[in-house]
Amino acid sequence: MPASSPAASPSADGAVRTRFAPSPTGFLHIGGARTALFSWLFARHYGGQFLLRIEDTDRTRSTEEAVEAIFEGMRWLGLDWDEEPVFQYARRERHAEVANQLLAEGKAYKCYASQEELAEMRERAKAEGKPQGYDGRWRDRDPADAPEGVAPVIRLKMPRDGETVIRDHVQGDVTMPNNVLDDYILLRSDGSPTYMLSVVVDDHDMGITHVIRGDDHLTNAARQINLLQAMGWDVPAYAHVPMIHGPDGAKLSKRHGAMGAEQYRDMGYLPEAMRNYLARLGWSHGDDEVFSTEQAIEWFGLEQIGKSPARFDFAKLANLNGIYIREADDTRLADETLRMMRDVKGWQVDDGVRAALIEAMPGLKERAKTIDDLAEGAKFLIATRPLDMNEKAEKLLDADARGVLAGLLPALEGMGDWSLDGIEGAVRAFAEEKDLKLGKVAQPLRAALTGTTTSPGIFDVLAVLGRDESLARIKDQAA
């Protein structure tokens, strides 16, 4: 009864080595990002190593752009790796070497079955209600029977009786009857290694002690255990993590919204908020919802990963991101907002805006949930006169409101000290003198200064815009 190692903690020498092994056929999928995070947290928790392997054996779909997108997504998330990335395709000769070793030891064999034979075999098995895997027709056949001019594949001799047990640290013990695990291909007829062979050889050669990956690989684990044991290699500890579903319970897909890590960055999420949120997707530490990366490293363990799929909730992510924005350094947020304005929104923004953004940030970030919110909230800083009024601002600026602005203008023009305290004192004194509630003055001011009805505190807006620009915008709208 082959079984995987039950150890979910470090090996005897104390070394933990995990890996993340994406295929470079597109962006860093958010599900893959969570798998990478779990592997990274586990390695960091035990003071071990986290490795990166690019599984680029599909040469028709693998691209350099996708490789760079994976690197960039990992860097943005702060998931650093400890050794140079391994590129699987570059190791294909090593993979073939292992297959040929198994062949020489009688643990693998050459199969000359044609595609037509295999299709006929599957159809017959289907009609008879039997498993549709390969039936082992060349397993014990004399190689002398091989047809001329046919390049064979090399298949692993899987056990035919008994069962294979995967001692999984998320799913529990999973038992696979060996009669449903067919003799799978190690080397194709062109001599190229299959995914199943390459993964096992690379995990062994890289010294991986813990394989943390999606539960869509659970069946693969049973096949891989038998290959590992055929080579006499240690079996790593397995942890197969459930998939991420969308809010509707279906598997997370493009129709649910952003998919790649870089898309979440461009939507305005902070990496530390993403780490916090992804860690809580399927893993928990009591009732803790908001925690630092350092706390996640301290607390993380495979035993707290749930067996059920987690649901991605964009509203929860936005709320969590808002918490992190309010705690973030204003200078950093200003730089992130500038990047959003320029690189994502394509706005023409002068470098001089940075200082104003930093000054305005305490007010801007109070209600913002994303960097995009900060950019939209700071739009008044780069607006040019005369301002375009949105519908609500236009409606608010009726004759009475414009009259209030006209009355306030001399009080502001007469100020000697254009400071936050001085501005607030002047506006409040005007409202009191005219027997107006502060909102009756602040609302028209906000519309005149920003072109909208929402903004940071109005005194902050006046201070950040400065005397000349503030007075000019008010004059544009005053009766």
Keywords:
479 residues, mainly alpha, Rossmann fold, Glutamyl-tRNA Synthetase, domain 3, Glutamyl-tRNA Synthetase, domain 2, 3-stranded parallel beta sheet, 20 helices, 10% strand, elongated
Explain this structure.
The structure is a single chain. The protein has 479 residues and is mainly alpha-helical. It has 4 domains: 17-82 and 199-245, HUPs (Rossmann fold, 3-Layer(aba) Sandwich), CATH 3.40.50; 93-187, Alpha-Beta Complex (Glutamyl-tRNA Synthetase, domain 3); 254-326, Glutamyl-trna Synthetase, Domain 2 (Glutamyl-tRNA Synthetase, domain 2), CATH 1.10.1160.10; 383-477, Orthogonal Bundle (Arc Repressor Mutant, subunit A). It is built from 20 helices and 12 strands. A 3-stranded parallel sheet has the order 1-2-3, with helices on one face. Helix 6 (218-231) links the parallel strand 9 (210-214) and strand 10 (237-241). The chain is elongated and about 105 Å long.
